[in-house]
Amino acid sequence: MGIRLSDATLGDLPESIIKPTYDRTMLTPGIVHIGLGNFHRAHQSWYLHRLFEKGLNKDWAIIGAGVRPYDEQMRQKMKAQDYLTTLIELDPSGKTAEVVGSMIDYVPVQEGNAPLIKQMADPAIRIVALTVTESGYYIDLATKGFDAAHPDMQYDAANPDKPRTAFGAMIAALKMRRDQGVGPFTGQSCDNLQGNGTILHQTLTSLARLSDPELADWIDANCTFPNSMVDCIVPATGPKELALAEEFGITDSVPVTHEQFRQWVIEDKFCAGRPDWDKAGATISDRVHDYETMKIRILNGGHQLISDLGELLSLETISGCMTDPKVHAFFQKVQKEEIVPYVQPVPEFEAIDYLDLIDRRFSNPDIVDTTRRVAFDGSSRHSGFLAPSIRDALAKGGSIEGLALASAFWARYCQGTRNDGSAIEPNDPLWADLNKISHQARKIPHIWLEMRHIYGDLADNAIFANAFERWLLMIGDEGIYAALNAYLKQT
């Protein structure tokens, strides 16, 4: 057994582990972060940790928070180790471990969220940040507007003093701050959504308007919601990751593994101040949209190109997909012919150079990122990550054959069996509907495209619809490899 992680044992950890050099007792809170998953602890938390290492911004420490029952389990694990996290960087050149200490507390998770509301109403808190997944913002997929009919939103609108969701709790805290003259905080989405700050703004003000229009107006006029782009590949933690921490000589209940690469581009739009993230390597820019587009189209879109196909072919990891000659060729051909030509450069990268970077990152064998994890929630990810490339290619008269085939692979994936006959367990919030429609589409392919909340007007585009229907019929009649080979032979 390794040394159990805590403040008291930091000095006892092996010399190979990088440990905080700052005095954690001198940190005071400035941020409440809702959603303490692996990504946050490997990304945003790390940037703040780097600032503390430089002796900067020690009044911006993080207080963790969550709103679901399982978040309390995470709180207990984190509390037992003084809210420290071991980050293990996985790179072909070697592995390194670092203990991050930027989180100093975690709000108790209770029904009605009273402790969270109280914490966010504290004048010391100037930013409330979130990582709640791209499907967690109560967006109506058909209109891209606010889903006011969702039961959670209806509940919070009827019970604004004891809300169920993070957004309801934020609104309740902002009401207290307004009434007490404390002033607003910045709402900062760190989720993988294009225009994530704009979407958070929409969710908060729309929900507030259901119960308190005056408060909604105050939030709209006083709070800020910066858009940002976040990037770092962070696998889920399981037995292998726990064992890896032990190999370093440390017992951590919730270690995080991650790749060497990180990127964070942030719009400078903070109503109550912010840490100097740019001094820790983040990019402060008014071109967040361009960075988002490059990352979402090439990286996230690339993930969707290969994860469904990889699952169908029983390839367990993303790096395994990249070592499969046909899957890798599919990834490269679709990217170079149908995605990259419509992505604008950013100061650091031309689109084709960024693709080369993503190819190397996906191919890292030390990052055990499962195809199942990446394929999760395809109903949000196909509409958000691939559909924009389809629209751009159609508008410019380019090919959409590979993107249509990717949609056909997803439809085949949702039938619930792999190429070898093994079962695919439900892997989408809308799985029951997707599974039913995918089986109907075996005979009538266009039924799949009639999911307007995913495809919108693409269902009416004859070029895309014909290509999709042709590919799905070929997959059904001749098999996955026949369709894949036919596409790769196209010139």
UniProtKB/TrEMBL annotation:
Limits of the Mannitol dehydrogenase C-terminal domain: 288-470
Keyword vocabulary terms for this entry: Oxidoreductase
InterPro entries: 6-PGluconate_DH-like_C_sf, 6PGD_dom2, Mannitol_DH, Mannitol_DH/Oxidoreductase, Mannitol_DH_C, Mannitol_DH_N, NAD(P)-bd_dom_sf
Gene3D superfamilies reported in the protein's UniProt record: N-(1-d-carboxylethyl)-l-norvaline Dehydrogenase, domain 2, NAD(P)-binding Rossmann-like Domain
A Pfam family reported for this protein in Swiss-Prot or TrEMBL: Mannitol_dh
Signal peptide: none
GO terms, molecular function: oxidoreductase activity, acting on the CH-OH group of donors, NAD or NADP as acceptor
Domain Mannitol dehydrogenase N-terminal as annotated: residue spans: 30-279
Protein name: Mannitol dehydrogenase
Organism: Cohaesibacter celericrescens
